[in-house]
Amino acid sequence: MDVRLEDLTVAGILHGIDLHAPANEVHGIVGPNGSGKSTTLRCVYRALAPSGGVVLLDGRDITRSKIRDTAVNLAALTQDSHVEFDFTVTEVVAMGRLPHRTTPARDDEVVAEALSRVDAAHLAHRGFLSLSGGERQRVLIARALAQQPKVLVLDEPTNHLDISHQLAVLALVRSLGVTVLAVLHDLNLAAAHCDRLHVLDHGRVVRSGKPEEVLTPEVLHDVFQVRAHVVRHPTSGVPQLLFEHQESA
Amino acid sequence: MTSTPTPVRTPPPTPRRPPTAGLCLALTAVLAASIVAGVALGPVRIPFDDVVRFLAAALTGGTIDAAEAGPYRIVWDIRLPRVLLAAVVGAGLSVVGVAIQAMVRNALADPYVLGISSGASVGATAVVTTGLFASLGIYALSTAAFLAALAAMALVYVVTGRDLTPLRLVLTGTALAYGFSAVAMLLVFQSPRGEAARAAMFWLLGSLGGVTWTSLPIAAAVTAAGVVYLRTRAKHLNALSLGDETATTLGIDVTRTRKALFGVTAAMTGVLVAVSGAVGFVGLMLPHLVRLTVGADHRKVLAVAPLAGACFLIWVDVAARLLAAPEELPLGVITAALGVPCFILLMRRRGYVFGGR
């Protein structure tokens, strides 16, 4: 499913975001703290109504669809995932079936499959609140997968994950064959796993393109205020960054 | 070849949970037995087989001896409506507590956190202290309490603002509850009638004394409709307890859902408080007791909570009648006295987690 953001504006935060993610591509959004990354995603998954501009799914303005119809096509991993009560892992993942009207047997199948895809099948009967941060994150990703979306919106999906699970989750996300829009903090992971990157700064997209076009020393200096060398990964050839360590002033 | 030992990690024990259908069936049986026992027990004790015989006769149009008219009157006119209303109030408060805790995502919320009951207490104390609505006779208290509850509900809704976010809702309800309580207390202390304070306090702590058949139908109908409605919203409540943003991504119109839940729970609370006063503790702790037993899934919680709440309040009311007979104790005193140790025991038995650790 094709995702297009046109002149997306949120008063004081976003000043006209234009962004296009064609069907089944993985797009990363990077930028310094406070640049509007999460706000952009919140407009896409409809937690926030923009003050101007539109989000189009396959050319259709999402605000013209019912919230439930959007949820059939679009799943999101948000930053506010706070669980108040002691749900089991299976119960949490099963909530991903909420927008769908399928049989309970089918729902159970999808839930079990989603859990095994994030390497969490063994956690199925555990209490969600008894899990470690990394286990929780994987379960929440499983919940998004259980929604069987055509568009997956991820706000820092690698949060709390150890390096092996970071790589596994991003590889999984790539293998799904759905459109992905992800905010990523780790620029090297973003470069290695995204088809295209969009750099946000002060509520504007300042650069869009393939990782090697976007992650240049100039952009890193101008936007992130760091000095970095760009090298090629010895096996995959994707650009990777080596940062100059700053002296404390 | 050397075998490498694989590290064995034993997962923490999974809490064992009884099947919900079996539990509901068992609780239904307990409820039926509790109703019979609740009718039999009181200052005048009536043998269980007589209770069953009288109830059967009343329901099927059978006959009883003329000599038994006295006990029959106690069973049918006094005890049965009271026991049934206890069941309705217990069921209603438990279910409202479950819904409100999920709706405002707060394990400490109860049916009274929205300020509705404090509003009702203004109406009730006005009746007790000033003789308002005297023309309505015995219905004056319930009527005034219900009207004041409706007014409080409207006020909380308006002050919270149109999006009813959980924190604003709880803060507004709590703040206004202090205001309503202040008005109620002022009425009590300004009253020239000495016994007004005691009467008002008794009402505030909840009582089913003097209940007749007339107060039952409305309370039962509103509670039944509310329970049915909330059970259809069980999955929504699950999603809402994961946070508004997540609920939105799961396809729920959060604001609309919360408005509907607010309306239903506030109306239920208003009706229940009007017939029984503000019985505390049930709506706070029964939801947790049920979650301890069946887990957090609201489809299970909302199936078990009304039955558990009904049984619980029947026995609370029995204790209220018996412990200081012929005086009656307020229900709120007993719910706390029974509920606190029960809750502590259950909480120690299992690792129960409220909202993180």
Question: If you had to describe this structure to a student in words, what would you say it looks like?
Answer:
Chain A: Keywords: ATP-binding, Nucleotide-binding, Transport. Chain A: Residues 3-227 form the ABC transporter domain. Chain A: It holds the Pfam family ABC_tran. Chain A: It comes from Saccharothrix carnea. Chain A: This is Iron complex transport system ATP-binding protein. The complex is a heterodimer of chains A (249) and B (357). Chain A has a single domain, classed as P-loop containing nucleotide triphosphate hydrolases (Rossmann fold). Helix content of chain A is 33%, strand content 26%. Chain A has helices at residues 37-44, 67-73, 89-94, 104-117, 133-146, 163-175, 187-193, 211-214, 217-224, and strands spanning 3-10, 14-21, 26-30, 52-57, 60-61, 74-77, 151-155, 179-183, 196-201, 204-209, 228-232, 239-243. In chain A, the strands form three sheets. A six-stranded mixed sheet of chain A has the order 6-7-8-3-9-10, with helices on both faces. In chain A, strands 2-1-4-5 form a four-stranded antiparallel sheet, with helices on one face. In chain A, a hairpin with a 3-residue loop joins strand 1 (3-10) and strand 2. In chain A, helix 4 crosses helix 5. Chain A is globular and about 55 Å long. The termini of chain A are far apart. Chain B is mainly α and 357 residues long. Chain B has a single domain, classed as ABC transporter involved in vitamin B12 uptake, BtuC. Chain B has helices at residues 20-40, 48-60, 69-103, 116-130, 140-160, 166-190, 196-205, 216-232, 234-240, 244-249, 254-276, 282-294, 298-322, 331-349. In chain B, helix 3 (69-103) runs parallel beside helix 8 (216-232), helix 4 (116-130) packs parallel to helix 11 and helix 13 packs across helix 14. The model of chain B is unreliable at 1-13 (pLDDT under 50). Chain A binds chain B through residues 42, 45-47, 66-72, 74-76, 78-88, 91-92, 95-96, 98-99, 122, 125-127, 129-130, 147, 153, and chain B through 11-12, 14-15, 101-102, 105-107, 235, 238-239, 241-246, 248-253, 291, 295-297, 351-357.
